Amino acid sequence: MREIPKFHLRAPEPTDADAIAEVQIVTWRATYGHLLPSSHFDHNALEDRKAMWRLILSDRKLPQRLRVAEVGGSIIGFAHAGSPLDDDDPVRDLQLYTLYLLPEHHGSGAGQALLDAVLAGDQAQLWVAKDNPRAHSFYRRNGFVPDGSEKIDRGAADLVEVRLVR
To answer: In 3-state terms, what secondary structure has residue 94?
Structure first.
């Protein structure tokens, strides 16, 4: 039986931007490597994500529902939620934007803790790749169901996403 390392959650600091970006790229590669071209996981993609997270974390005026999970001083996952984005017809006032956890920490409880920390049991919506059974199972356990809405993510090689709500 493998030992599950202890994690803790905290609010991220601006200095965490690069580590968050690295977790995002690693988890994208593990989750979507069979669906997206390698350019989504290359050095340029990583640099773009670093810049994006630096910008997000530097704006302390924005109300943030953003938490990182950490083990031994290293970020292993993160979750971010807020007002709906990129949704022409939102059905909830709160949207989970991202929840990523390094694959070696799946089953540790960190993903659940991150979700609970940023959504706090509130009604919410999220968009998830249609072809992501692990995520669908996780969100279903947390009360999310598809509402029939789909969209094509043109920036992600026409990946089909479905909206889940609770």
So the answer is: coil
Contact residues for 9 (Cβ-Cβ < 8 A; gap 6+): 67, 68, 69, 70, 110, 113, 114, 117
**Cα(117)–Cα(103) distance, integer angstroms:** 20
Which CATH class, in words, describes the domain spanning 8-165? Answer: alpha beta
Measure the CA–CA gap between 140 and 126, rounded to whole angstroms.
12
Run of H or E residues at 135: helix 133-141
Q: What is the pTM of this model?
A: 0.91
For the segment 76-130, what is each residue's pLDDT rounded down to a tens digit? 999 999 999 878 889 999 999 999 999 999 999 999 999 999 999 999 999 999 9
Residue 158 backbone zone (phi > 0: left; psi -120 to 50: alpha; other: beta): left
Q: In 3-state terms, what secondary structure has residue 127?
A: strand
